[in-house]
Amino acid sequence: MTVLVNMIVTLGMIYVVPAGLRLIDPARFLRTARLWPLAAAPGALCLWLPRGAPAAALAALYAAACLALAARAPVRLPRAPSPSTARPAPSEIAVATALVSPSIAATALVAERAGYRLFGFGLDILALTVPHFHFAGFTAALVAGLVCRAVGGRAGTGRLARWAAYSVPAGTLLVLLGYFVDDWAELLGAVVLTGGMWAVALLTWREIRPSGADRTARALLATSAAVLVATMLLALWWAAGEATGIPHPTLTWMAATHGLGNALGFALCSMLAWRRLGADRPKTGTGTGTATATGTGTGTAISTGTTDRLETSR
Fold first, then answer.
1. What is the DSSP track for 197-217?
2. Integer Cα distance of 171 and 167 in angstroms
């Protein structure tokens, strides 16, 4: 299991995070995205070293980069969907969650590499927390935010998109709190997170996929949506088994199915698909970044071409 988990985490550190940063805001995060693989290299390297001071020191370097990234999350929250409301846009809550998640993963990584049972958690749990918050935390929240940006202003689907953008961060937080409370609290988090991710899958299939400019983009979007249905069902099964005692997969089996499926089938395919949609190219001539599907100029990563295709595909 260790080798598989390390490969999944390396993918998240080296490719998924910087690719996601380009999608969040290509203007503000371009330099960070370019330099991120260098910052992530010590974290990736420490995975393959024995536990001890050298591995923990390398993990700490990666954690410092993640904490610096998390410090940029609060600037996303004041972005209200309209001047008449003081609440942050749901897409920005999802994006802020994505920016904070790697710091949680990196904190667990430092403790695990040092052989320290942080908050009393076993080292295996700490090791699995690292991929969880790179993918269920960073990637899931980011994609929920991107989907909400793209279709959040539409009649009929906008409410579901906004609910997904709220429920994915909420589910991620509840799962984290469940670590400290009990298995039933973690099951509640899994239910909320699964509901949000299934909403993302449905919206991706029905609303985003038809807008793909080419067959490859549509195939990647279809794959990411289909994989989510299966992998989140596994997450529900495991959480229900932990809470109720019913037979459920082992952690090793979950890493090989749920973990690998989310990493390759969902996260990697989603990043590649959104890049092909042109989501990493800002609109020119606006001074405030790109415009969202709801008409708010918030420096988003949805390009004009992508938004136009989303509107004409209906």
1. HHHHHHHIIIIIGGG-SSHHH
2. 6
C-beta of residue 108 within 8 angstroms of C-beta of residue 129: yes
Mind spelling out the 3-state secondary structure of 88-110? CCHHHHHHHHHHHHHHHHHHHHH
The token pair at 288 is 């405030």
Q: Which residue has the tokens 């509640």?
A: 188
Measured CA to CA, the distance from residue 237 to residue 291 in angstroms comes to: 40
Q: Amino acid letter at 187?
A: L
Q: At 174, list the tokens.
A: 């509840």
Residue among 101, 128, 129, 108 at smallest CA distance from 56:
108
Name the β-bridge partners of 88: none
pTM of the predicted structure, to 2 decimals: 0.85
Backbone angles phi, psi at 290, to 5 degrees: -90, 165
**Residue 182 carries which side chain, given as an amino acid letter?**
D
* CA 22 to chain CA centroid, nearest Å: 13
Amino acid at 46: C
Q: How far is it, in rounded angstroms, from Cα 92 to Cα 79?
A: 7
Chain centroid to CA 294: 22
Q: What kind and span of H or E run contains 178?
A: helix 158-180
Residues making up the chain, counted from first to last: 314
| 29-46 pLDDT, tens digit each | 999 999 999 999 999 999
Q: How far apart are CA 61 and CA 113, in angstroms?
A: 12
pLDDT in tens, 126-174: 998 999 999 889 999 999 999 999 886 776 788 899 999 999 999 999 9
DSSP state of 249: -
Helix (H) or strand (E) holding 300: strand 297-300
